[in-house]
Design goal:
The protein is globular. Helices cover about 30% and strands about 50% of the residues. The chain has a single domain, classed as Nuclear Transport Factor 2, Chain: A. A six-stranded mixed sheet has the order 2-1-6-5-4-3, covered by helices on one side. The chain is built from three helices and six strands; from the N terminus they run ααββαββββ. The protein has about 120 residues and is α+β, with helices and mostly antiparallel strands.
Length: about 120
């Protein structure tokens, strides 16, 4: 059995992140959901208030927030070691917001999934 190359792994991981980005663009939490493990979590601050807990909170916020048709995103870094990965994504104009997200992923049965998201909402 051959092991995937670094390039193949990065391509697979960025493919997973595209579910997240397209979910933001469409405003549909269900479009994001395939990127995330069922037990994934999210944490970050919105002003002085902590936004955190199960990833369903992100899907619900995204549904309420609506489509971000003019969002601009950049996958800034992908770090892969074995079955673990970390990805940084910066987003401009997510319905007027600017975010920096850090995602931790684990490869389960050959498929990458996000297990946690932490974010910074730029003032």
């Amino acid at each position: 059995m051959s092991h995937p190359t670094y390039v193949e792994e990065v391509n697979a991981i960025t493919g997973v992140l595209h579910h997240y980005i397209e979910g933001a663009r469409s405003g549909k939490g269900t479009a994001m959901k395939p990127a995330f493990h069922d037990a994934a979590t999210i944490y970050g601050y919105v002003g002085a208030d902590l936004f955190g807990g199960p990833i369903q909170g992100l899907f619900d916020w995204n549904d309420t927030n609506g489509p971000a048709k003019d969002i601009k995103t950049q996958i800034c870094s992908v770090d892969v070691v074995g079955t673990c990965a970390n990805v940084r994504v910066d987003s401009d104009n997510w319905t007027g917001h600017r975010f920096t997200d850090f995602f931790n992923l684990v490869k389960f049965d050959g498929q990458w999934q996000i297990v946690s998201k932490v974010f910074y909402l730029h003032p």
